[in-house]
Write a structure and sequence with these properties.
The structure is a homotetramer of 301-residue chains.
Chain A (H helix, E strand, L loop, with lengths): L1 H14 L2 H11 L5 H25 L7 H26 L3 H5 L2 H8 L2 H5 L20 H4 L3 H43 L10 H12 L12 H17 L1 H20 L28 H13 L2
Helix pairs in contact in A: 2-4, 3-4, 9-10, 9-11, 9-12
Chain lengths: 301, 301, 301, 301
């Protein structure tokens, strides 16, 4: 009874040890200190190693005995990632914000599959989600140009999202209809690959996206004629998402060019820049800048 | 004789019962009342169910006895859609406008194939046209952002239509010529798949749209050389519709940005917005707005 | 001797019969008179029939005896096109201008293959070049909107031509190199389809244009890796012609919008418009308009 | 001993013979003199011949005895290119600048493979790198329009580079994940082509770039569903590089249009133009012009 009390007390101290939290925070979240930088490099190395192991394992080029070693390394790395995840949650004041952020979810999903693989066969391969953790690489090596460009890309995609959603809704209705009609036309041909509607819809998507594997192809004259029509429609339709993204990027580009220094009147400043890079004058705040200010706090994770 | 007279009288009353018409109108066309909303949700559920049934039927995963059930459900749903169509025609003051609108034609085509299937085999699958009725989903759930974006997309495609039509006319002449020339070159090779000109034209379309199934491929050196030329032409040509749609979207985007509030001078208002979303001032009317006003009346259907 | 003199005299009169020339000109070049319109419709009908005959002939669906009929019809149509060509040359004051124009060359190429087919087998199919004569259809039916749009498209492509030429020069060097390297890597694999460099270059073009037939595919790990690199390069490179054409079209669009009426200040006038379509005021001449004025004289052909 | 001293002296004189250097420079680097022009034409002829020889050799259409001739021609050409390379290095004041320029590296790589092929089999085919030397053709024939257009293209690609790099980083993570998941799903199917993760990644790249060979295709329902999702993602993603390049080109176009003559107010001047092509007034310097001035010095090579 007394023993549990001591344990409870220590646990309480651990949970509220602000000094320890600060120390861990500077290691796992920041990369300005030597320790933080070392941690980040080890982390990235572990992620790359872990993904490479999964790829190598699938190639069946090792002798049978080596697989035990591979498995042990994988467990060790997973343990490391689990401790890292717990440390991240532990040292934050608002862990919930991290846990439900993009990186928080990816970090969790990067460890879970291995634990799941004890119960369910095949989930083991899902640990490749770890690869997405590599996006951190830009922050660690302070490649801010790339972060800015990446943000511009994300912003363009984000602004285009409702248009692209509408577009996909329409494409889904179209491929369902086209697939069904092709099933009605081609389904009766001997050895037809259009043997059910889901396969025909799969064919319609393969065709409309211009992938064109050729594993399912029309053989009847009517089917070929309809396919040609679908291809030409797909040809026009491929222009739509491109047009959407192009138009958005042109518009974002122009906004960027409008960020003109009030003192020296030169433009070409990033959305996030606070001061003119030529004369140091304070730039006016832009809407994306405000959005980015909020995001920058989350970017840490 | 007297009996018919009574029947005729009742029919006349039914046809001119404005109160009933108003009641039905509020149910089938509007979704503001609880009844109207319920009707819309049942309708969308029925459409999805109906399309799913067709897909499931084609997969041959049910025991033979289940098909009778499937067929009965399909007839019940078709009856429901038929009654709905008649109700829509009945309750409008200008039914002709609805009947010849996009949704009016789709609604009719969504019921006809089942009736046709009594006489003609295979038409049964055309009922998948019902899927297009799902476009209503955006209006029902008041996803106006998506409707606006969809309208912008449609406007861009509509403005681009003559250019794209010209483009397709040219593409058709090109694939006909290319197909014929390839038939002349490849047609004599043993086991050639270029066994007639329609198949060669089909091949030219498959190639030029960069789908490339590989079910028909050139085997002679001259044929391969000409194919390479066609591909490189197709590569340039794929740029044209994309360029058309991109240019139109950039231009539409810019018009949108020109809708500036006369009081607070902020922009970014939708084409359809009547009042500034920041300060509530009345915005100036735009040409597309006027066009949309007309369309909004039809949009109901 | 006297007989030849009469013949020569008649021939001379025929060559300088301005009245006859004017009459023929109004029939074959213009479509404002009933006779001219009738001629144009017969001409278009003959072209369509002639192309359809070639297509039908290749399908081997007629009994053997029908081919004589097909061949006779073809000769009659070719005779008609030949007389038409001679009439066009005859009635113009500057026949050379027509003979070396796009339509002049197409008109000649539309008749030659049939005459050539007496001496050379296979040239017969080249008569499909006739299909290009159908472009006249827009002028005949006075579809000027389409002509304007087509001119805008052509202008954009024409302005983009040097950029696209440079681009293709680079692509050719790239596919030659890539094809040779892939031959060095894959050529030794058993049953390799990379059996010589031209085939490897053909494969590189098929891959880079994202057509991807799959008739030639890499099988070695190194070959697959290099293919993936080529695909990703092709993916970026496909953006270049699209970007070129898009940028040109955006710029042409903007010029179009700059054609503002000096009296009512409304824009949206075609390049070729001379008067404001809203208030009738004389518009300022633009450079493309001047270019089009010259072209309009040639457009007749 | 005396003999070596003389040799050394001659060598020294040769190394500092400014007159000879100037003479060689005017021949190998310039094409304004008849000798320089002749040299350039012989050079381009040799490159084309050399590339054609490699292609012809691979086609196995010559009798066995001819290969000795081919090989001798190849050695002679390689010797010529080697001497040319040494001459280029010799006659420059700052040879280092040339050696590490794009053309310097290409010129070296154009000779090395043949020497390497004495030791390593297969490197022989790398001499196709010579094809890249043909880019000089535009400078030699003074096709400055094309050079300007090419520079605009390169500038656009260069400005877009960080965005495209970010994009590829993301695509690589995506195809690795997708490939692994597809291996987990499809790997167990009998005769599955998804037999290891590298092959699955290769498949993911083939699919996402819409090449779609069809040598590896999913067969299970889950695999086909996931493939369809990947295709639709790829369809959206293909829009991104196009959007990037289009936006950059639109923006570059606009800068070009801003180069307005201060005297006659006409625009449309090249980035590199120093004087107005209409009235001869001095144009203002632009940033790209300054960049080009530096580059122009290197362009020689």
């Amino acid at each position: 009874m007394k023993y549990f009390s001591i344990l409870h007390q220590r646990w309480y101290h651990f949970l509220h040890n602000e000094e320890l939290k600060q120390k861990i925070y500077s290691i796992v979240f920041e990369s300005d200190t030597p320790k933080g930088k070392l941690f980040d490099i080890i982390l990235i190395g572990s992620i790359v190693l872990s993904v490479l192991l999964v790829i190598l394992e699938s190639m069946h080029i090792f002798p049978h005995s080596a697989y035990l070693v591979l498995r042990v390394v994988e467990y060790v790395l997973t343990l490391f990632f689990t401790i890292e995840y717990l440390a991240r949650v532990y040292c934050l004041k608002q862990p919930r914000k991290y846990i439900f952020s993009f990186f928080g979810i990816v970090d969790l999903l990067a460890t879970l599959p291995v634990y799941l693989s004890f119960f369910l066969h095949g989930t083991h391969y899902l640990l490749v989600i770890r690869a997405f953790r590599l996006i951190r690489i830009f922050r660690i090596f302070k490649l801010f140009t790339f972060i800015n460009e990446g943000n511009l890309l994300l912003r363009s995609l984000w602004i285009s999202a409702p248009k692209i959603f509408i577009f996909f809704f329409f494409v889904l209705i179209l491929v369902t209809s086209m697939g069904t009609v092709m099933y009605a036309i081609e389904g009766d041909a001997p050895n037809s690959q259009f043997n059910n509607i889901p396969n025909s819809i799969y064919w319609a998507i393969v065709t409309m996206t211009t992938v064109g594997y050729g594993d399912i192809t029309p053989v009847t004259p009517v089917g070929r004629f309809l396919s040609a029509v679908i291809m030409l429609i797909g040809y026009t339709i491929i222009a739509v998402p491109t047009g959407i993204v192009s138009a958005t990027m042109v518009s974002e580009h122009k906004k960027l060019e409008k960020r003109r220094c009030p003192r020296c009147h030169r433009d070409g400043h990033d959305f996030e820049a606070l001061y003119c890079k030529y004369c140091g004058a304070r730039l006016k705040k832009t809407e994306p800048e405000k959005a980015n200010e909020e995001r920058r706090n989350d970017e840490r994770f």
